[in-house]
Please model this.
Amino acid sequence: MADDEDSGNHPAPHRPWDVVVSTVGMELLGLAFAGVVTLVTWPFGWLPDPGLVFMMAAMFAVWPAAEAYRAGPRRRSAVVVALLALVTTTLLGAAAVNWAFPPPVDADVGILVGSLVAVPVGAAVLAWSLDRGTATGPGSEA
Model:
């Protein structure tokens, strides 16, 4: 009886690697959607700014991390750590792109590239933090 109760109540935990791969795939899907929007609006003289491209990609990419958060025990500390990783990676990526490219390049490109790299990093940190909280070992039984 106890085995039946335990088997159906707890969803399978998401491994950090699975969340990262799903996030990258969804982010590429979001970038493809942004590309289609750009191709449709380009003949009319409107090109989306880099912030809009990032928002389109991020709207798709957030789902794997949200599912991992919903599937496990909710821990606010994991979200805080993931957001700090997201911000840090965005700033480091933006600084690296702005340093590597010549000054005439649009400054928003650095933030766009840094943000696109940071989304999978933030998802990985969130999944890893949630995975650490659900790890079971000797002595962790209630």
Observations:
- Helices lie at 2-9, 16-41, 50-71, 76-100, 108-134.
- Residues 85 and 122 are 6 Å apart (CA to CA).
- The radius of gyration is 19 Å.
- DSSP finds five helices and no strands in the chain.
